Amino acid sequence: MRPQLALRLIGSGLVLQGLLFYGFATPLTIQIFPGASDEAVHVGIIMRRGLAAMSFLAGLVIFLVRNDGYRTTKRVLFGCGIGFAAITLSLIKILAEQAAVIPLPAIAFYGFVAVYALYISVRKQKTA
Questions:
Q1: Backbone CA torsion sign across 103, 87, 15, 43
Q2: Residues 81 and 117: beta-carbon distance below 8 Å
Q3: What is the DSSP secondary-structure string of 50-103?
Q4: Following CA atoms 82, 85, 91, 97 in sequence, which dihedral angle do they give, to the nearest 10 degrees?
Q5: What is the pLDDT of residue 52?
Q6: Contact between residue 120 and residue 9 where contact means Cβ atoms under 8 Å apart
Q7: Which pTM does this prediction carry?
Q8: Which whole-number Å values give the CA distances from 12 to 40, 42, 59, in the listed order?
Q9: Which of these, 99, 122, 101, 103, lies nearest to 111 by C-alpha position?
Q10: How far apart are alpha carbons 39 and 126 in whole angstroms?
Q11: Does residue 95 contact residue 102 with C-beta atoms inside 8 Å?
Q12: pLDDT of residue 127
């Protein structure tokens, strides 16, 4: 798979995640923190909407950089791989500490994207 396609998929996914996090901030916050007080849920909703905007921004930047040359796309993919690995490890830590309810498919998906981005970024370019 070409790095440009990988960046297109990752960028689009992050933009979609941002839109979903913003649109469903209340039910997601209640699902992740069951039993939280109304004030805590309100703070969680505000934080989730901030996260949504950052996800949207990151996704848009990643999507727009996809045609900036082979070397640039490989570097951006390497950064994405490290970032998604950090997200995965953070989610695993939260799950292990039982600080919140994190769906296992989310952890698996972020882990897959981390490995995928790192693989594409370090893979040698095929010559014709």
A1: positive
A2: yes
A3: HHHHHHHHHHHHHHHGGGS-HHHHHHHHHHHHHHHHHHHHHHHHHHHTTSS---
A4: -100
A5: 96
A6: no
A7: 0.86
A8: 31, 28, 6
A9: 103
A10: 55
A11: yes
A12: 60
CA distance 25 to 42: 10
Nearest in space to 18 (alpha carbons), one of 52, 59, 42, 65: 52
Q: What is the pLDDT along the chain (128 residues), one digit of tens a residue?
A: 688 999 999 999 999 999 999 999 999 999 999 999 999 999 999 999 999 999 999 999 999 998 888 889 999 999 999 999 999 999 999 999 999 999 999 999 999 999 999 999 998 877 65
Is the sign of the CA dihedral 7, 10, 13, 18 positive or negative? negative
Find the length of the chain: 128
Helix, strand, coil content of the chain in percent (nearest 5): 80, 0, 20
